[in-house]
Structures are given as structure tokens and as C-alpha cells.
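ok trying again, last paste got cut off:
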Amino acid sequence: MVERPYVLLSCGMSIDGYLDDASPDRLLLSNDADFDRVDDVRAGCDAILVGAATIRQDDPRLLIRSPRRRAARVARGVPADPVKVTVTGSGGIDPAARFFTTGESLKLVYCASGVADKARDKLGENATIVDAGDPVDLQRITQDLARRGISRLMVEGGGHMHTQFLTQGLADELQLVVAPLFVGDSRAPRFVYDGTFPWGPRNRARLAEVRQIGDVVLLRYGLTERFGE
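nice, full thing came through this time. structure:
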């Protein structure tokens, strides 16, 4: 039995490795063609995970945009949208965020043990709260997702989530889109932060695909033997 889902990390970044700039407005790093590609990847996944900081900063909906793809999912006997998943150590999530108020799919909130009750009181029936240990344990989270029938998980950020999945060896694939611009501001959020990564000079990640999509470039890396499942 597979102990965790196949985990795909998806990210758009600037040439110098930033997910956004430091302004209040969101920096759009991609283009319409790539947004449609991401929509297609989402449609093939059972769940989408973002960190609580991404919910606070970007207020994402995490829904399938294409009516055709939504209909195809329903025809396969699954919900029109993937399960939404987030992780929080503080429980500081707004129940009015679009993560909770849009879509009919299940919303899972994995919390540090000490704030699980606080999160239940705050979110009520808007989400299912799951104790994820103290500190939060990603291995425990992925195992719980597998028990819930999640076989393919898409992680969409932010940088701290990417860093944790990568440094803990829990990512099977990385889809990295590079936009033709620089941010040049260390206050801005990065794709990854400091850590010990399994892939280094003696264990290089496998580059499986390079694809130009308008003015951005998709780099697709295989990180484990499960790549391509």
C-alpha cells in the first residue's frame, strides 16, 4: 500500500527566484496559456495544498476554471474540484477566505496540536480540522491524506511549504515556471528558503521536460522513482 500520495509541486517564479514582490498587489508571473496548463494539472489531482500564509496573502480559490474539465471530473465520478488542503501552525486563518467560501469540495485544515481546538471554534463547519502534531508533521499529513483516498496531491506554495516538502523528500515532481523578469527585493517571498535538500552536486534532480509557453519557460523535474505515476 502507498503510504503517501504522489506529490507534485507547482510554482511560478521570477528569474531570481521570487514568488512575488514586496508590494501589497499580487505580482502575476505567468500568462493565460500557462494558467490554462495549471488548470489542466489541477484537474488531474485529487487535492491541492497551500500553506496558511498563502491563503492570507493571495486569497486563492483553488478551483478548476474550465467547465469542460469540471464536467470531465464529474463524469469520472469525482467532485468537480479537488479537495482543498492547508497547513497552519498558529491557527490564524480567516473563515471568510475564498479557500473556505468557494466550491463544494472538502476543505481540510491540518493544525499544530495546540491550536486545533482554536481552529475548530473559528472555522466551525467550514472545514474539517485535523491534528497534525506539534510541531506540524508533514509525513503525518501525507499519510492521513492517503488514508482519505488522496492519491495525487498538488502543492502550490508558498515558499515555506515548498521548502518543507523538498527538504523532507516528500516531493516526487517539480513543475517550475520561470518568468522573464527580476524582482530584486529580499523582502519578497522566495520559491524556497534555507535547508538541506536531497538534490545537490552529488544527486542532481532529473530534468524531464523543458517547454516554452509564450514568454515563460516550464521546467519539469523528476525527483523520485515515482515520477510520472
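cool. The beta strands are 6-13, 47-51, 83-88, 107-111, 128-131, 152-155, 173-178, 206-213, 216-222. The helical segments are 32-43, 52-58, 67-75, 98-101, 116-123, 138-147, 159-167.
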